[in-house]
Amino acid sequence: MIASTNRRSFLAHAGAAGLAAVFAPRAFAQQAAGGPFKLPALPYGFDALEPSIDARTMEIHHGKHHANYVEKLNAAVAGKADLASQTLDELVAGVAGIGDEATRNAVRNHGGGHWNHDLFWRVLSPKDKAGAPTGELLAALNGAFGSLDKFKELFSAAAAGRFGSGWAWLVVANGKLKIATTPNQDNPLMKGIVADADLGTPVLGLDVWEHAYYLLYQNRRPDYIKAWWNIVNWSEVARRLGEA
Ligand code: MN3
């Protein structure tokens, strides 16, 4: 009985010490590398989007790629109160007006990367919760593209045809839906950087960087795009359309 208590006590003590040893340096590192922008938690588990997107890809994509954009964005605005005080939307939309070239490029790449991935996680959901476009969203898609199937066909072609790294988007511009694409981490809000034809407010975005699909699909980007349709969170797309 005594041995058992001591053992439990020892384990509790060792556990607390172990946790402190593991978490203290990490907490310090996050604080040291801190800033106004934070990596958002995924709204589901790493494996929630399988089989369309595998857990390992999600883990690296969120925990390494997205985290790196957040860290480098914070570094880019560190000590610059006029930038650090802006919202992410403001920074991304106004990036062309940043005078210092190195800062402008860093905000373009890493601010864009943070914004784009923040949207990307939210417009996805597990297949059994993905739903389908209805109501105002469906009417808008039908109005702009003729049918949902035609929209998917055109969007898929745009995403497959985006040369190299980049994104395909469904955006709202002048009250109408249209398809856009951008290279690298450029974003349709980036006036003065993105071509006028691709400007708008994104309501859906598809990451076609190889890091988004290569582990599972290798060079088969069209297969990734086809499987991706199964995990689009249509209620989130509809919500964003309502606010655009
Ligand atoms: Mn990505």
Which secondary structure elements does this structure contain, and how are they paired or packed?
Layout: H1 2-32, H2 55-77, H3 81-84, H4 88-93, H5 101-122, H6 135-145, H7 148-161, E1 166-173, E2 176-183, E3 201-207, H8 214-217, H9 221-228, H10 234-243
Antiparallel strand pairs: 1-2, 1-3
The structure holds manganese (III) ion (MN3).
- Identify the strand order in the major beta sheet: 2-1-3
What do we call the CATH homologous superfamily of the domain at 127-243? Iron/manganese superoxide dismutase, C-terminal domain
**CATH topology term of the domain at 127-243:** minor pseudopilin epsh fold
Bound molecules: manganese (III) ion
Give the fraction of residues assigned to helices: 40-55%
Helix-strand makeup class: mainly alpha
Question: What is the global morphology?
Answer: globular
The number of E-state strands comes to 3
Mean pLDDT: 90
CATH architecture name of the domain at 127-243: 3-Layer(bab) Sandwich
What's the level 1 CATH class of the domain at 127-243?
Answer: Alpha Beta
Runs in which pLDDT lies below 50 for 5 or more consecutive residues are 1-32
SSE string, helix = H, strand = E? Answer: HHHHHHHEEEHHH
Number of helices: 10
Strand proportion: 5-15%
Biggest sheet: strands, sense, closure?
3 strands, antiparallel
First-to-last CA distance: 66 Å
Radius of gyration: 21 Å
